[in-house]
Amino acid sequence: MTFKDLSQAEREQLLKFPVYISLLAASKDCRLDGREMHTAIKLTHIKTFSCDPVLADYYAEVDRNFESSARAISDQLPADRELREIAIKRELNKLEAILRKLDTRYAAIMHESLRSYKDHVSRAHRNVLEYFIFPLPISGITD
C-alpha cells in the first residue's frame, strides 16, 4: 500500500506530517520564524524533485498547501512550549499509525525522507556564529 492507496482522510492527515515535523523542530521558540518557514517551504518544494521517486506524488501534494497548512496548524496549537510540543507529538503518533498501514518498503523510505527533512529544518534555526565556531556536528553542543 502506498500514499495513493490510503483513504482521502488518511491522505489529508499524512500530508500534514512535514508541517508537524517543522513545527516540532521550531518548538523551542513555539513558532516557525521567517527563516524556518522559508527553509521548510523551500525544502518541501525541493523534495518534490529530489526525493525517492516513490514519494514524488506525496511531496507534490504537500508542496501545494504547505505554507497555509503550517500557519493554520501553528495557530491552532497551544502557545505554551511544553503543551505545544505534547500536542505536536500526539499528532505525530497519530500519523505514525497511518504510516504503519503502508508497505514496509514505502514506509521506510518515507521515514528516512522525513527524518532528513526534520534535520534540515532544525538546522535552519542555528546561527552563523555556531557554524563558524563548530562547523561539524558535535554531540551535545550542536545537536
Short description:
This protein has helices at residues 8-14, 17-25, 34-50, 56-76, 81-99, 104-123, 128-133.
Question: Could you explain the architecture of this structure?
Answer:
With 143 residues, the chain is an all-alpha fold. The protein contains 7 helices and no strands. It has one domain. The protein has helices at residues 8-14, 17-25, 34-50, 56-76, 81-99, 104-123, 128-133. Helix 2 packs parallel to helix 6 and helix 3 packs antiparallel against helix 6. The chain is globular, with a radius of gyration of 15 Å.
Biggest sheet, in brief?
Answer: none
In DSSP terms, counting alpha (H) and pi (I) runs of 4 or more, how many helices? 7
Provide the number of structural domains. Answer: 1
Strand content: under 5%
Radius of gyration: 15 Å
Catalogue the unreliable spans: 127-143
**Category by helix and strand content:** mainly alpha
- State the end-to-end distance: 35 Å
Q: How much helicity do the residues have?
A: 55-70%
User: Total strand count, please?
Assistant: 0
